[in-house]
Structure formats: structure tokens, C-alpha cells
Specification:
The protein is built from 19 helices and no strands. It is mainly α and 483 residues long. It has one domain: Growth Hormone, Chain: A, CATH 1.20.1250. Helix 8 packs antiparallel against helix 17 and helix 13 packs antiparallel against helix 17. The radius of gyration is 23 Å and the shape is globular. The N terminus is likely disordered.
């Protein structure tokens, strides 16, 4: 495939014209497969573990309110009055949605290590403070600040990862980053079980120790992360992570794949142009639809299991295995999806598996079957998160568009969180039929959206093959959509 040298900052804003392909600066480099694989592994080892570690803590910090709730916080802060618990969940999401795009803009300007470690330290401070809240109002305020500071982390990580890898390497990397984080986050219930054993130590309740210890842990890891997180590929040689030769080769393989190794400046005019692309909105709605059940399982699985008659301690222990199962299944599917260069079978299959799991949990009267439904539901929705991130990443190009696209897509995940937090009514416990049917409806929406986009992509790819397009797809000659 031809490479692309962006014009000025990468895009003709006024005319939206494709720029003329040209080779990367310097003589094309020839690397054998073993050397290329070794370089990719070097990038994997430096980029993914630290981002995964921080996001693991972010997930724990975000969802541990459910463990604290059944460990005494519900009574101490009177969350049983009205919809207080639901409100405490919902206030997290508006700032999470609104500050994702500004955060991605800041990420590029101040550097990934500076920005990601800074916002992680900030939300760790909020978590620590959450351990000392005296009432429901203070808890809601902390949840709002938590959403504000966590807003930029996941889209920033997704943006950074997709800028380092070629298109058919991305789903495995996004899956490794997200799903391993989700797996560690799934063990938050076990961590919470251990921390509530500190009940009364220093005159502090067990549920308070959950927030205090996890807040301190977040702050420590954030400081360590500042020394480890790498910047974007164009700055890798400057920061000493890659040699000049390695950095050139990374740029070359990105340009060969999609022609956007060089960053193009992100202006508000360009933001408007990118947001006019209907595909970004379709990807975002599909992503919202799979994130919604992920939040549901995080917030309500302990409540559903607790409603089966188990103690708080056993409930926390039983909440982890479904997440571990989901990680194993989703990593396998991500590997297959990259290997065979197809996205739609993975997305469709996982949405169907999620529906089956939801129906088992909603309608079975057997607790074992309902518990197994959590395994299938988790596997379906958790696996589709990296799948849909990769689906968008493979079908857009230019770093500025990736920045806007990842912020919009993951921002819609916050809308999914709001939906998930508000359709599970306490009066319907422990079956929550309304919430489970809304969740099922969103999985059907994924299937409809996937079908429509697949038909559009097939039609446009045929036009590329026939040479009948008036303008190249995504402004790059020879670019084809990934199905």
C-alpha cells in the first residue's frame, strides 16, 4: 500500500481533499520478520503493562462503591433512602463524558506521561478523600470529581495504543490492555473482602478502608507511571525509548499501513470536520451499547449474587470468576480477529453470547443457572469493548481523527453508564427485569448497527476495487474499510 505524507498538519480543512501519497523521509528500511516482531514486543512490554496497571486501579476505584455498599456504607450514609445510590452512581458520568475530548487535546500538548500520571494522581487523591466522607452529599461530590479526573485516561490510552500499532495488531493490544485491567478490577471484590476485615482498626469502618487503601495505591502507582509511560511514536527516539533507526521503522510500518505516522495538528475547525463523519457516531452508539452491560455487571453483579442468599464475604468472592472467564474468552477472540483480519464475526458472536447470559440471569429460578448467566454476559460485553475500539480504529485514519474518535466513542460509554445506573430499579431486585431487557435491547442495537455498517463497507470497498470512487476513502489512495 502506498504511504502518505500529510499536507501541512495532515488535512486540507477547507476542501477536505486527499493529499498526495509520498514515501517516508529517507531510504525505505528492510527489516526481517524476526527483527520486526522483536521490536513490536519491545513496544508491548513498555507500553501495555503500565497503562494496564493504572487502568486496573481506575476500574477498581470506579466500581468499588458496590462492595462498600454491602459492607456498611449503605447504612452509615443512608444510601437506602430514595434513589441515593443511583444518584451517587450517575453523577460520575456527566464530567466523564464532557472532559474526554479536552483531555485528549491536552494529552498531545503536554505529553502522555505527564498528563496520564497527573490525572491518575488526582483521582487517587479523590479516592482517599472518599474514605472520610461524612454523608451522602460528600460521597456524591467525590464521585463527580472522580468522573472528572478519570475522564481522560481510557480514551487517552486507546488513542496512544492505536497510534503505535498497525491496524491488524490493534485488537489484541487493546484487549490485553483493557481485559487484563478488567480482570484485575474483577478481583477488586476479593480485595474489598480483605480490606473490610480491617473493620474498626484505628476507629475506621471496613468500607472506609476500601477507599483509603485503594486511594493510596493509586497515588503511588501514578508516581511510578510518570517514569515509565512512553510518548507517541514521533517522540520515541527523543525520549530514549527507541533508537533513531527503530523509530524510523515504526513510522515506516505505520505509513505503509495507513499513512498517518506523523501527527497532524488538532484544531477546533478540524474537530468539527471529524465530528461530521457519521461513522464516528455509529461506532460510538455501538460502543455505548456494550459498555452499558459492563457497568451493569460491575455495579449490580454483587447485588444480584447477594440476593441469591449469600453473605457479603461470599458475594465478594463469587463476583470475580465471571470476569476471569470473560478475559480468557475475549483475549482468544481478539487474537483470532487480528489473525483473520475480520471484526464483524467477533462483535456479532459476543453480542449474542451477552444476550444469552442476560436471559439466563433474568428468567431462571435456579441460582446456579443465574450465576452462569453472569459468566456469559460478562464474556460478551467485556470482549466487545476492545473489539469495537479496534473496529473504529481500523476504519479511520489521521492522528487528529483518532483523538476525536476515541474521545467521542469512549464518551458515549459514559452515556451507557448512565443508562445502566438508572434502569435497574431497587423494587425489582433481585431479578431487575427492566434493566436486563434494556441491556438486551442494546445488544440487538449492536447487531443492527453492525449489519448496516458491514453492508456500507462492502459497497465502498467494491468501489475502491473498481476505481469508481470520486475521492479516496479516509483521504488515502488505496485505503479499504475493515469488515
Amino acid at each position: 500500500m502506498a504511504t502518505l505524507q500529510p499536507e501541512k498538519d495532515g488535512f486540507d480543512v477547507e476542501h477536505k481533499e486527499a493529499v498526495t501519497p509520498s514515501p517516508p523521509v529517507g531510504t525505505p528500511m528492510e527489516w526481517d520478520h524476526a527483527a520486526e516482531k522483536k521490536l513490536v514486543r519491545k513496544i508491548d512490554g513498555r507500553l501495555l503493562p503500565i497503562l494496564g496497571a493504572l487502568y486496573s486501579i481506575a476500574l477498581i476505584d470506579r466500581v468499588n462503591i458496590s462492595a462498600a455498599r454491602i459492607s456498611g456504607m449503605d447504612v452509615d450514609l443512608r444510601l437506602d433512602i430514595g434513589d441515593r445510590y443511583t444518584i451517587a452512581l450517575v453523577v460520575f458520568f456527566p464530567p466523564y463524558f464532557l472532559f474526554e475530548l479536552p483531555s485528549n487535546i491536552a494529552l498531545r500538548k503536554v505529553g502522555s506521561a505527564n498528563w496520564l500520571s497527573f490525572i491518575a494522581f488526582c483521582w487517587g487523591t479523590v479516592m482517599l478523600g472518599q474514605g472520610f466522607v461524612p454523608n451522602y452529599s460528600a460521597l456524591a461530590g467525590c464521585r463527580f470529581l472522580l468522573g472528572l479526573f478519570e475522564a481522560g485516561f481510557f480514551p487517552g490510552c486507546a488513542y496512544l495504543i492505536t497510534c503505535w500499532y498497525v491496524r491488524f495488531e490493534t485488537q489484541q493490544r487493546l484487549a490485553a490492555f483493557y481485559l487484563i485491567s478488567a480482570c484485575v478490577g474483577g478481583f477488586s471484590s476479593i480485595l474489598a473482602f480483605g480490606l473490610i476485615q480491617m473493620e474498626g482498626l484505628g476507629g475506621v469502618r471496613g468500607w472506609q478502608w476500601i477507599f483509603i487503601i485503594e486511594g493510596i495505591l493509586t497515588m503511588v502507582v501514578a508516581v511510578i507511571a510518570w517514569f515509565i509511560i512512553v510518548d507517541f511514536p514521533d517522540k520515541a527516539a527523543q525520549k530514549g525509548f527507541l533508537t533513531v533507526e527503530e523509530a524510523r521503522f515504526v513510522a515506516q510500518r505505520l505509513d505503509t499501513d495507513r499513512g498517518d505516522a506523523e501527527p497532524d495538528g488538532l484544531t477546533w475547525a478540524k474537530v468539527g470536520i471529524h465530528l461530521s463523519d457519521w461513522k464516528l457516531w455509529a461506532f460510538s452508539i455501538m460502543y455505548m451499547s456494550t459498555v452499558m452491560p459492563a457497568y451493569v455487571f460491575a455495579y449490580f453483579s454483587p447485588v444480584i449474587i447477594y440476593g441469591m442468599g449469600y453473605s457479603a464475604g461470599v458475594t465478594n468472592l463469587l463476583s470475580a470468576p465471571p470476569v476471569v472467564f470473560a478475559v480468557v474468552v475475549a483475549l482468544t477472540i481478539a487474537w483470532l480477529s487480528d489473525k483473520y483480519r475480520k471484526r464483524w464475526p467477533a462483535i456479532m458472536g459476543q453480542a449474542i453470547v451477552c444476550i444469552i447470559g442476560l436471559m439466563m440471569t433474568a428468567y431462571s429460578t435456579n441460582n446456579i443457572v443465574r450465576y452462569l448467566g453472569l459468566f456469559l454476559g460478562q464474556a460478551g460485553c467485556q470482549g466487545n469493548i476492545p473489539a469495537l475500539l479496534a473496529y473504529q480504529s481500523n476504519n479511520i485514519r489521521m492522528q487528529s481523527k483518532r483523538s476525536v474518535g476515541s474521545a467521542l466513542q469512549i464518551g458515549f460509554g459514559a452515556i451507557g453508564g448512565i443508562i445502566g445506573s438508572t434502569v435497574f430499579f431497587e423494587r425489582e431486585a433481585p431479578y431487575y427485569l427492566t434493566g436486563l431487557w434494556v441491556t438486551t435491547g442494546l445488544q440487538l442495537l449492536i447487531l443492527i448497527g453492525l449489519g448496516c455498517m458491514s453492508m456500507y463497507f462492502i459497497r465502498m470497498n467494491k468501489k475502491v476495487d473498481a476505481g469508481t470512487l470520486q475521492k479516496p476513502l479516509e483521504g488515502m489512495s488505496g485505503f479499504k474499510f475493515t469488515l
